[in-house]
Write a structure and sequence with these properties.
Elements (H helix, E strand, L loop, with lengths): L10 H15 L18 H4 L7 H12 L7 E4 L11 E4 L1 H7 L5 E4 L2 E4 H8 L3 H10 L4 H4 L3 H4 L2 E4 L2 E4 H8 L3 H10 L4 H6 L8 E4 L2 E4 H8 L3 H10 L4 H6 L2
Antiparallel strand pairs: 1-2, 3-4, 5-6, 7-8
Helix pairs in contact: 4-5
Length: 245
Amino acid sequence: MTKNPRNNPYYRLNNIYRGIKTRCYNSNRKEYERYGGRGITMCEEWRDSDRRTHKGWEAFKQWSLLNGYTDEKTIDRIDNNKGYSPENCRWVSVTVQANNKRTNHFITHNGETKTIAQWSEEVGVNYGTLQSRVTRNKMNTEKALKNENYHNKMITYKGQTKPLSIWCKELNLIYTKTYSRLFKYHWSVEKSFELQGNSTTLQITYKNKTQSIADWCRELKLDYVKINGRISHLHWSAEKAFETK
């Protein structure tokens, strides 16, 4: 598998996969004690390390794409005392995963108490940045939650101009995900605000017909993994994704 992320839409997903195996089986790594060292393992289906077929990786990738994986999500074990398997894993936002941790750090601001992850989504400050400000740099709450350059990007949508944070609150959008769509992937405002769902529920319009990626692949006899990667990760148009050989 190529190590160049620009040419591999599954570069991040593969790093997550390898990270799981490292935590579970490499006793030289410091995180091993909290995973493999206490009996957390990877199911045989995902662990299979056949170097010719990469069966384990392929099984993990297929499961991920069919169960809500996006570049904004992380893998989460439903029961923290059990290992990594299709039955015990899910793809969730940073907020959900961070809120599941026993070591949550709570912040009270303006009479509201929330976890760092919840405040991260609320005010639009990156989770890692906010955690560092609060726990390492010991910033006061008001200063830690403030990031004007990031938070107050002005966006015009349907004839109205407001800060992106306000749009996200009004339209019930995840700030960090919407920010990435606009400024990392350079999506239009309309597409960033209006396109909902993950890769398994995402509705694609092609030749005046709308249905999911999976349904299009069945109808056009296309490879789901390839087409999903083109649309969900490389952000190709439906025409380019379906018609490029």
